[in-house]
Amino acid sequence: MSDASYRDAIFSTPLDRVARFSFDERVVACFPDMIRRSVPGYGQILAMLGPLARRHLRHGGHVYDLGCSLGAAGLALAGQLPPAAFRYTGVDLSPAMVERAKETLSAEHPEHAMTVEEGDIRHLDYRPSGMILLNFTLQFLAPEDRDAVIARLFEALEPGGVLVLSEKIKAADEQDNAWLVERYHDFKRANGYSELEISQKRTALENVLVPDTLEAHRARLAQAGFDRSLVWFQYLNFASLIAFKE
Ligand code: GEK
């Protein structure tokens, strides 16, 4: 990804008051490093977006990337598909993310039709789209807002369209969940995060990132009208689903 990427040390010093996690300039600067070291399977999920688009998006179809951050999904698609294959709209609430995503996409893939807009995915005026990506974004919305967003995405999808939904998840069984969370912390330790960083980030994300179970996700997708959904990827407590609109 971008060469202007710094190592994530946001939670490496004791903070008097642990800051609530937000997507500000400080996070943007180290975002590629942070997400790679803290989201198991992030790279594998991005790597499958091209093949999924090739299979499910008509030639020249439109792709929404909601909560696009620095446009990593757009970069992955443009790296795998020719310019005429798709049109991309990234949307993010954070002005700092949008600015950097625009710069990166136009610098790396000037031939591809890719735009990035600042916006709140809860209130967007959605255009018809053939593929919608929610890559680790729904989890940051308040739980009471999630049903309505998924229902609106179902409406925006063209027949034959797909929604790719990647999320941090919670296991329904408490013991299973504890095991997954502990192994996830092992994953972070193995990726160089200290005990202090792990515990401070955990506190900062409390009430900001509230995970659902896979069962809750699938029930929500069905409720919104999706004919079929399945989990196509899972690594510890991180999973990606694909939902089909027939
Ligand atoms: C990736 N998809 O690299 N509207 C728009 N954006 C929002 C909203 C909202 N209501 N709430 C949060 N965001 C990316 C990774 S990161 C995941 C997604 C993470 C944005 C927020 O500003 C941030 O950029 C993104 O959702 C979540 O493939 O940091 O773990």
TrEMBL record:
It catalyses: prephenate + S-adenosyl-L-methionine = carboxy-S-adenosyl-L-methionine + 3-phenylpyruvate + H2O. Residues 63-161 form the Methyltransferase domain. One of its GO terms (biological process) is tRNA wobble uridine modification. Keywords: S-adenosyl-L-methionine, Transferase. Belongs to the class I-like SAM-binding methyltransferase superfamily. Cx-SAM synthase family. Homodimer. HAMAP family: Cx_SAM_synthase. This is Carboxy-S-adenosyl-L-methionine synthase. It comes from Halomonas beimenensis. The lineage of its organism: Bacteria, Pseudomonadati, Pseudomonadota, Gammaproteobacteria, Oceanospirillales. The gene is cmoA.
